[in-house]
Amino acid sequence: METTVRDAVRKAGGRDLRRVVYSSEQIAERVKEMGREITDHYPGDGSLLVLGLLKGSFIFLADLVRAIQLPLEVDFLVASSYGDGRVSSGTVELVYDPETPIEGRHVLLVEDIIDSGNTLERVIPLLKGRDPASLEVCALLHKRVVKEDPEIRWVGFDAPAEFLVGYGLDDAGDLRHLPFIASI
Ligand code: IMP
Ligand code: MG
Hints:
- By secondary structure, the protein is an alpha/beta fold.
- It has a single domain (32-80, 100-183), classed as Rossmann fold, CATH 3.40.50.2020.
- 24% of the residues lie in helices and 28% in strands.
- The protein is built from 4 helices and 9 strands; from the N terminus they run H-E-H-E-H-E-E-E-H-E-E-E-E.
- The strands form 2 sheets. The protein has a 6-stranded mixed β-sheet, sandwiched between helices.
- The mean pLDDT is 90.
- Residues 56, 82, 170 line the site of magnesium ion.
């Protein structure tokens, strides 16, 4: 059931949400499609490692792995680029590095949203250096601002150039728990 407007207003602590950009139904449908494509892409031999970039990807990843019909393992990586601001700081810090060995694994890196591309520019070479069998990126949203795009195999939606919150995306830590994606 779609959350009522009143629920959303309470979750937002009375803050103004400009508009709903992707409803929970739209997101659910797209995530299922991506799950099917990912299922078709990989061998079902247990070599798939889904690596979520925290914190933003946690809700997307939770829904995505349930739509993938293959054996897989989940781990996380924490990179921080924004601090509390709304503009990418340009410095990407690795705050947590996965303990799962990735050599010889098919690694699927899951990102919430690609903006400047700084995070992936830092994380991709780092993971490639560890000799995975393959490395692909699946992002729910892509703002299409980067000219030289690192190859991203799966993108949920091309996002508008607005600041988005909800479904894992935050504004200074707030609003990750909205079940839809809104602009503020
Ligand atoms: P990039 O390194 O500039 O590509 O930024 C990637 C990260 O910035 C994402 O994983 C998000 O955590 C954050 N980010 C980028 N755009 C938004 C937005 O519109 N809302 C919330 N977080 C965002
Ligand atoms: Mg963030």
